[in-house]
Every structure is written in C-alpha cells, then in structure tokens.
Amino acid sequence: MLRRLKVENYALIDRLELELDDRLNIITGETGAGKSILLGALGLLLGNKNDNATLKDDKRNCLIEGVFDLGTRDLQAFFDRNDLDYSRETTLTRQITPAGKSRSFINDTPVPLALLRELGSQLIDIHSQHQNLILGSEAFRTQAVDTVAENHDLRMQYTTLYERLCHLRRELARLREEAEAILDQIALLDDNFEKAVDLMYHCKGKIIVTGVGKSGSATRSKNSQRPT
Q: Nearest 5°: phi and psi at 224?
C-alpha cells in the first residue's frame, strides 16, 4: 500500500508531498487540474520510461519517491533473491537528471530500472478504462491461488530446496569444466612425452627411455633401438 508520495520538479509540479490514508483515498478535480500528472509521476516511480518532457525546471533533477507498506505483501523472497534489504516500510525512488539520465533506488540501494519495474508491478496496478492488465499476468494469478491456499510455508520450503538445487547444478557444471580441463592437460602432457621420447631416441650415446609403465617406472639402455 502506498503511504506517502513525494514529487519534485515534475511537469507542472514544483514540489508536492502527499500523505495517504490506509483506507480509501479519492483525488478529484476538473479536467486539467493535474490528476493525470500525479498518475504520470506514479508511473515513473513504478518503472515507466521517461518521455523527455518530465522536468519543470530543466536545470534541476526530477525526484519521485514513494513509501510503501508491505505488510500484506509476500515479498521477502523477492528481496532475498535480489540481495536487497527487506523492510516492511519500503521506499522506492526515481531520479531523472536534466540530461535525461535515470537512476532508481529501492531502500536507498541503486537498482536497474527493470528491477524497480518488477517490484512496482507487485505494489500498484494502475487501471484505466478497459485495462485490467494484471489479470493477464500468470505470476499474479499464481500468487492469488497461493494466497487462497495459504501455502506460504510450503512455498518457502520449496524455494529453499530449489535454490539449493540450482546451486548444486552450477557446482556440478563447474566441476565438469575443471575435469575437462584436466583431461586436456593430460593429453597435452602425453603428447609432449612422446615428442621427448622421439628426441631422446635420435640423440646417440644418450640414455633413452625404452618403456614406461602406467606406474611411471622406466627401463633405460644405451644406443638401443627405439621401442615400437
């Protein structure tokens, strides 16, 4: 739930701070009063692209900040998966510079815009006429079923086991790569050994290797014929 919204230097807004009640909030006004501007600022906070017409004063940064109460949301796994500090009261921040560059933050931690958008889509759904987009999201439908089923603990157990499985798969792949590298090195050493035997065979009067067993023991002789 959105609890506070702060907007600076956006469109017609120089500075605005809005405190929202935990019940129903209604913003009314005539056409052109600025209701859609608030929705536009909220859309940027949720990860929408900048349309290059954002700044009221093109010499200052645009700042949009929202404080959300995550008490009714099951988002701990999202924060853990993305190595973010979880807090029931979470702050999302979007900053746009006069050059058009954008920076995004979750609880003061810099994050990619895509990650801000992913979290934002789970916090707020903006509806306009004929748009119920979240109902088409498989992730939302699955979350709704999980909520009704009250299987939070079971899903947490599954998530832990699945992450462990992914870790073991990555470890297995790494070990296989190391094993292949060792086999390649052995093949190279065998080739170098054969070349060394040929070189020693052509050196008259030198002790040459006439046989090497797998144990590494060798038989030597002088000026003998090269073994076949």
A: -90, 170
What is the pTM assigned to this prediction?
A: 0.54
Q: Please name the residue ranges forming H helices in 31-151.
A: 35-45, 76-81, 113-120, 138-149
d(CA 203, CA 141): 79
Assess contact for 213 and 221: CB atoms under 8 A: no
Three-state DSSP state, 217: coil
On whether the CB atoms of residues 68 and 3 are closer than 8 A, the answer is: yes
Tokens 């939070």, residue?
Answer: 152
- Give the C-alpha separation, 79 to 77, whole Å: 5
> Using CA of residue 8, residue 11, residue 17, residue 21, what is the dihedral sign?
negative
Instruction: Please tell me whether residue 7 adopts helix, strand or coil conformation.
Output: strand
To which residue do tokens 């590298």 refer? Answer: 181
Give the count of alpha carbons within 13 A of 42, CB side only: 20
pLDDT of the chain, 228 residues: tens digit per residue: 888 999 999 888 888 888 888 888 888 888 877 788 888 888 889 888 887 667 888 888 999 999 998 877 788 888 988 989 888 889 999 999 888 888 999 998 999 999 999 898 888 877 766 556 667 778 778 888 888 888 888 888 998 999 999 999 999 999 999 999 999 999 999 888 888 888 877 775 555 444 544 444 444 444 445 554
Distance between CA atoms of 204 and 135, rounded to whole angstroms? Answer: 86
Residues 6 or more apart whose Cβ sits within 8 Å of residue 175: none
